[in-house]
Amino acid sequence: MRVNIFKYSSVGKKQIVAITGLMLVGFILVHLGGNFMLFGGPEKFNGYAEDLHRLGPILWAARAILLVAVSVHITLTFSLYLENRNARGTPYAVYADFGNTTFAKRTMILTGGLIFFFVVTHLSDFTFASKTGPRTVIPGVNGDASLGLFGLVWMSFLRPWRVVLYIGAVCMLGMHLSHGIQSFLQTLGINHSQWTPYIERVSNLIGVLVALGYSMIPLYVVIRHLTVGVGV
Amino acid sequence: MAKTISLTLKVWRQKGPNEPGRFETYEARNISTDASFLEMLDIVNKELTLQGKEPIAFDHDCREGICGSCGAVVNGHAHGHERETTLCQLHMRKFRDGDVLVIEPWRSRVFPVIKDLIVDRSALDRIIASGGYISVRTGQAPDAHALPVSKEHADAAFEAAQCIGCGACVAACPNGSAMLFVAAKVSHLSLLPQGRPERWRRVQKMVRQMDAEGFGACSNHYECEAACPKGIRVANIARLNREHLLAAFRARLFGEYPDIKVLPPSV
Ligand code: HEM
Ligand code: FES
């Protein structure tokens, strides 16, 4: 079967954007759960990471699926973005919205793009970095021996600019999702006179919780470092 | 006695589709607050005509909010700021003495300006021609209760059928999308038994035509719903999305509807 995603109709493209977006939301939630293992200390966190890597081919399959989902999501949203921008022609001298559109809705392409650049940085920070090298050593802890991925994360967040970058990026992600979640339901045809207003609130809430949840990790490292230390 | 107000109008003037347009400023003096927006333009036009100037061209027909002919963007709002109101039903009591109004035509690449505030909305007609009908022979009207229709479906179909095709959804959408229009037509037909047989084919044809015309895609901003003079709800867009998804699966599974042709856009 030959699949040319550009040949889909505008509605079809949006529906593929919605499905790939939903897959990414799934990843975001699982990843957040995994990151929370950090609160359990080095053994728990590194143990979780090793368990994941022991999945071997399953992990690689999941990564491949995510990579395809991200690529398709970005390609199609960018293609839709260009088409939408082109549809107006002469711009309005005065354009006033009725308040149904929101800042989050108008900045989807921007927050999405920033998330993409963040993800690239993030992968090089953690995923592709050595888990045993000097960057994984927390001075004065564990007899100056490597603390694996835990040590890498800990040391990374002792740099203020990285804390700011990560918190900024997850706020973008939260905003993207606050619209994304309610939007994918509508795009896939789900709109209910009684439930939809609640779904919109839940969608905004998930956005806020994702931003807060992910922000907790760098904040936890910084606060803990300045107070009780690693504690091992 | 009726109150009167005076306003300053900045109106888009454009001689023809290929002419450059620009804003001209006019004073609308002593306008009765009982006048409609179009009547206010009539008064200004009478004045312009007496001065030997070209009157402002604008579309109108019924002037009672049911035909879908009228429409302009007033200070950035399609059909003005008043909710669920066409421009012809917008009254001057909704404005204040001394207001400055910027009046523009619907802005869409798909709706070229014919003259001043009049735009060519034939793209919407071509979308209807592509699938917004039912294939039955005309004849005697059937008995009203000959076909059972549930109350829920009748109500939802009726609500969608209120669309007057004015194009305000396109004008108000940040993406210049016609989804609310197409969704209203798809909904109204597919909810009723007469529209069911062509249901799957219809949604595909109409979406294809919409795309071919060059309208934007829906990003769920919902500005269309707020601007719609008939209060057509975006739940209809969700219904279109649903029909489209199901139609796509059916087409994949059963290889249906290979015959979708697109009418040549813009004449
Ligand atoms: C990586 C770069 C990304 C870019 C450039 C991007 C871009 C966009 C854009 C422009 C839209 C709106 C499409 C439209 O309404 O026309 C969108 C929708 C969406 N995005 Fe993203 N996005 C990205 C990453 C993500 C991630 C990581 C997630 C999930 C965690 C996600 C989840 C969603 C969802 C659920 C939608 C809603 C789909 C719909 O409107 O039906 N996106 N994205
Ligand atoms: S003139 Fe008919 S709807 Fe306004």
Brief description of this entry?
The complex is a heterodimer of chains A (232) and B (267). By secondary structure, chain A is an all-alpha fold. Chain A has eight helices and no strands.
Largest sheet of chain B, if any?
A: 5 strands, mixed
Instruction: Determine the N-to-C terminus distance of chain A.
Output: 56 Å
Query: Could you state the oligomeric state of the chains shown?
Result: heterodimer
Ligands and ions found: protoporphyrin IX containing FE, FE2/S2 (inorganic) cluster
CATH architecture of the largest domain in chain B: Orthogonal Bundle
* Unreliable sequence segments of chain A: none
Our count of domains of chain A comes out at 1
The strands making up the biggest β-sheet of chain B line up spatially as: 2-1-5-3-4
User: What is the alpha-carbon Rg of chain B in Å?
Assistant: 21 Å
Number of strands of chain A: 0
CATH class type of the largest domain in chain B:
Mainly Alpha
Pair with the biggest interface: A-B, 42 and 51 residues
Report on the biggest sheet of chain A: none
Total number of strands of chain B:
7
> Which percent band covers the strand fraction of chain B?
5-15%
